[in-house]
Design a protein that fits this description.
The complex is a heterodimer of chains A (about 120) and B (about 110).
Chain A (H helix, E strand, L loop, with lengths): L3 E4 L2 E4 L5 E7 L5 E7 L6 E8 L2 E4 L6 E3 L9 E3 L8 E8 L12 E2 L3 E5 L1
Chain B lengths: L3 E4 L2 E5 L4 E7 L4 E9 L6 E7 L4 E4 L2 E6 L4 E6 L8 E9 L7 E2 L3 E6 L1
The chains are: A mainly beta (about 120), B mainly beta (about 110).
Chain lengths: ~120, ~110
């Protein structure tokens, strides 16, 4: 099992450019998440998905979009990149048997470091 | 307001020594608490989960404790090794609205020879 795979690991964007961060998991997890991690701050949830075809906003969704066409893939789209989007992005997945109770372990990718200049 | 606070922010210890990291939370109603280890440049990896009824749980040289009454958890590392150098993140899950996980900002541990 590869676990959660994110690409690219590093990217530099100019202000106003767009890009997609790719995320795929091979553990057949139903839940997938995108977080951003800024220095000195806790991980913040951008978007999440409870299954193929279903996505929802997290705490900081502005400037981002996601899709979940398959169980395995959960790409994050940045439109019109801004310097405030400079961060490290983590994709994660988990298996949850209940939509109410969350005891599932999060499995994270290696992260994608994005710089917007 | 649901919050998770960790202390200290950073810690430097000598190889072979023990240390204890703290996590205080105000998340309510409480479901469970996980400790994750994040090596530099990597994603976090779960070390242990503590549920409401558990007081102590060990994973090798890592021992987590939970006091649900005072809403405090600790992670004790015994006989530290250089490979323990990492950030340790406390994550608390509430019983409801379970897509909300509350993350601490982490404790940066450096083990020096």
């Amino acid at each position: 099992n590869a676990g959660v795979t994110q690409t690219p690991k590093f990217r530099i964007l100019k202000i106003g450019q767009s890009m997609t961060l790719q995320c795929t998991q091979d553990m057949n997890h139903n839940y997938m998440y995108w977080y951003r991690q800024d220095p000195g701050m806790g991980l913040k949830l951008i978007y999440y998905s409870v299954g193929a075809g279903i996505t929802d906003k997290g705490e900081v969704p502005n400037g981002y979009n996601v899709s979940r066409s398959t169980t395995e893939d959960f790409p994050l789209r940045l439109e019109l990149a801004a310097p405030s989007q400079t961060s490290v992005y983590f994709c994660a997945s988990s298996y949850r048997s209940s939509p109410i109770l969350n005891t599932g372990e999060l499995f994270f990718g290696e992260g994608s470091r994005l710089t917007v200049l | 307001k649901n919050q998770v606070e960790q202390s200290p922010q950073s810690l430097i210890i000598l190889e072979g020594k023990n240390c204890t990291l703290q996590c205080n939370y105000t998340v309510s109603p409480f479901s469970n608490l996980r400790w994750y280890k994040q090596d530099t440049g990597r994603g976090p990896v779960s070390l242990t989960i503590m549920t409401f009824s558990e007081n102590t749980k060990s994973n090798g040289r890592y021992t987590a404790t939970l006091d649900a009454d005072t809403k405090q958890s600790s992670l004790h590392i015994t006989a530290s090794q250089l490979s323990d150098s990492a950030s340790y993140i406390c994550v608390v899950s509430p019983q409801t609205g379970a897509n909300n996980l509350f993350f601490g900002t982490g404790t940066r541990l450096t083990v020096i020879p």
